Model the fold of this input.
Amino acid sequence: MVFGETGGKCAISRNLPEAAWLRRRVVPREGKGSEAMRPLAAAAVKGTMQSRSEEPAYKQIQNAIRRRIDAGQLKPGNPVPSERELARLHKVSLMTARHALSEMARDGLVERRHGAGTFVAPPRVHFNKLLGYSEQMASLGLTAHSRIITCGVVTREHEIAARLGLAPTSRLGRLERVRLAGDEPVALETCYWSADEFPSLLDAPLDRVSLFGLLERECEVELAYSDEEIDATDADLRIADLLQIPRGSPLLRIRQLIFSTKSRATVYAMGFYRSGRHTLRVRRFR
Amino acid sequence: MVFGETGGKCAISRNLPEAAWLRRRVVPREGKGSEAMRPLAAAAVKGTMQSRSEEPAYKQIQNAIRRRIDAGQLKPGNPVPSERELARLHKVSLMTARHALSEMARDGLVERRHGAGTFVAPPRVHFNKLLGYSEQMASLGLTAHSRIITCGVVTREHEIAARLGLAPTSRLGRLERVRLAGDEPVALETCYWSADEFPSLLDAPLDRVSLFGLLERECEVELAYSDEEIDATDADLRIADLLQIPRGSPLLRIRQLIFSTKSRATVYAMGFYRSGRHTLRVRRFR
DNA sequence: GATTTCTAATGCTATATAGCAATGTGAAAG
DNA sequence: CTTTCACATTGCTATATAGCATTAGAAATC
Done:
């Protein structure tokens, strides 16, 4: 035996033959487990490796913690149980408890400070969140209203079809709406999508209903993100008229290509937003 | 490490000939190790836990893989060695090899497919990347030029001081520059920072040097992200004059609060960008 | 009272091992 | 020529254990 060292601490010989899980199957070595965290209770089964369809232990631990956070029992800054404590409470090994915590840390739910402990992270601010107009209004406690300007199928928007990954002469649904805040028009938004793929959109009551909502609920599209180009421009005659502002007024222009989770470009949208009525918030990273 | 990538640079420390520590210590249970991945070779010592100051084994494995990606030996889509193979090559335990891979997966460098393997991820697109003007120009292969308009200390910008987390009457460094593309002015940018914390900034040749660069290299500040507010406005008399555009021309206004890694607000900047000369690209997520 | 030193708790890296679960391949069967 | 099925490979969850590294507070010292 060359490596007397490792042999010396007899790590191997000890822990595997009579193996924890073996022993556990028979005698679960009951602990004085407090119920504070709703221990897994399936521990005995888990010992032999969970029977399929059972949620992994580390996720159950995460859920237990998440529940306590959601319920307000654990507030931002509060410490969550330590690795060793979780292991004891949930009757899992240290590594498993650790797995649970470090994944939550990676997801930003908790923060870990070496030597100090693990703490509930401050609530995250949702930056760069893709929201439809209706949703933005809703998040401000308001109801969105729109006036439909045009609505129909076009076939000559070659460039936009290309951006959507379609043949140049594809049939595109197009919806042009003026967005209202109260009675006042604040934005003009134009959306394009494949008329062949989502024919039903044109029939919906789009002056009241969210396009995003329709796509996600009716068309079973899962939106993922949008790549946007933002610049400033000025109101031409038509837009000035529609938004009831002087011609030449500054406008924020946002052009967005919206992708679904299958990384398919799904909607192309262009919006003109009245100066002073709209601020875009984003976060950029170094 | 909250945002973005774990550093891409290579670590010097590791592979220097397995020499030093190996010789020092007992025989490492020699394997038939192929050299393909430059195995760690420090196994024996690591067995008893590496002596301090040494980079962790799992990071060394990551670096080895990263190097092979950077060197072009591993291209997107190529498989990287499996957990078991890495464990063998680097003479570490399976869990350690796994740790290395799964962290790289979490950082988006590789993708793991259960049962199939681990593969180099397609190169990431850098969206929402915080770049200074100089850096943006550099990324386009151009050199940035500026004309300094004003430069000095102000004490009456209460609101901005507050945003920077300073007392209302703090001394603030202020720098106002016109950004040039060729000879043409395209933007007016104004930056504020704590004059007490970074006094040296005012002395730098800021018409030629990047403010971001100065902060990061000279002041040892690590910038992390910026929260930005974007809207459209029109040129007042002064801006119109400085940018040589008609009064009332539309401008893209970007106000950003730039944070360092210690989550301290470090710089507040406001920029006015000529319409047609500047497009902001961002990605937003659902 | 302020400073330094010790110590317990906690997170981090690592070892070795076991069995389950998904994937792709190649041989056998239809 | 296709389909099926077994198998090797690979990733995933889990066990048990060890020692190092950092932190914060208590105790001892100045």
The CA atoms of residues 68 and 203 of chain B lie 43 Å apart. The first strand of chain B starts at residue 79 and ends at 80. The radius of gyration of chain B is 25 Å.
